[in-house]
Design goal:
The protein is α+β, with helices and mostly antiparallel strands and about 260 residues long. Helix content is about 25%, strand content about 30%.
């Protein structure tokens, strides 16, 4: 068994059994980003072998607020499968969540493929059918979220599940860096942020993802849902919590999304 297979199997078992494991980098200091990507692909292959289907990709740790919170100072990336999409309430146990945290994002839904390297933000907007308000529920199979960049990349960018709002918006008609999100938790104001928190522009974040994955031979495909990164600090979630977000452009609400944990 290769090192990628060893750690990929360990993370998959942790996912299935709703438990965490010790940080990989603490046990194997020689692990590199490329090693982490190989582990991530093995982890993904084990999920798809059980019937899951890739429906998109995600970029994480893009904003300074999240980087400072996690102590990880470069973006990560991972894959979305159909099993990660939740339509309605989020049953923590049924979805296999261990130590979930909610983050408000902008999701891009692609009408054309993007193949890096060389993808620009302008090409991302042209290839996007619509954007949607989104909650990504990040989760870590690593003990107490004690992650390095290697740990989070290996662990599929700490992805848990995601929820999309109903609105489908034309990105070309919006000021993406200026989009504002306001988040409440259990009815009380929690956080707010702007599109420019994500690498200056969410479309730039998606371009970075296309180019980074392209170097590994992975494309962003027609119909893919792309999660572009959190606009706000991520917040722990437990059963009974309800998060709501309002996305606004020039002060006018244009979309909403809710994450209700049961």
């Amino acid at each position: 068994m290769t090192r990628a297979e060893q750690y990929g199997a360990e993370l998959f078992a942790a996912l299935c059994e709703r438990r965490t494991v010790a940080p990989l980098i603490a046990r194997d200091a020689a692990l590199t980003i490329d090693d982490a990507y190989a582990i991530s692909l093995d982890f993904l292959a084990r999920r798809t072998a059980e019937g899951e289907r890739v429906v998109g990709k995600k970029i994480g740790v893009t904003s300074k607020a999240v980087q400072d919170m996690l102590g990880v100072f470069q973006p990560d990336f991972g894959f979305l499968t159909d099993a990660m999409y939740v339509d309605g309430d989020i049953d923590i146990a049924a979805t296999g969540l261990i130590q979930p945290r909610a983050e408000a994002e902008i999701a891009f839904i692609l009408k054309d493929a993007l193949v890096g390297p060389g993808v620009t933000a302008e090409q991302v907007i042209a290839a996007t059918d619509a954007i949607a308000p989104c909650f990504e529920i990040v989760d870590s199979r690593i003990d107490e979220w004690k992650i390095s960049i290697v740990d989070t990349v290996a662990d599929n960018a700490s992805c848990g599940v995601y929820v999309l709002g109903d609105e489908r918006l034309d990105p070309a008609a919006l000021d993406l860096p200026g989009l504002h999100v306001a988040v409440t938790k259990n009815g009380a104001p929690l956080s707010e942020g702007f599109g420019h928190a994500v690498q200056g522009n969410p479309a730039e974040a998606v371009a970075w993802l296309a180019n980074t994955l392209g170097a590994h031979g992975v494309t962003l495909d027609v119909g893919d849902v792309i999660l572009s990164g959190s606009l706000v600090p991520l917040a722990p979630a437990v059963k009974g919590d309800r998060f709501e977000m309002i996305l606004s452009d020039a002060g006018q609400p244009i979309g909403r999304c809710a994450a209700n944990f049961i």
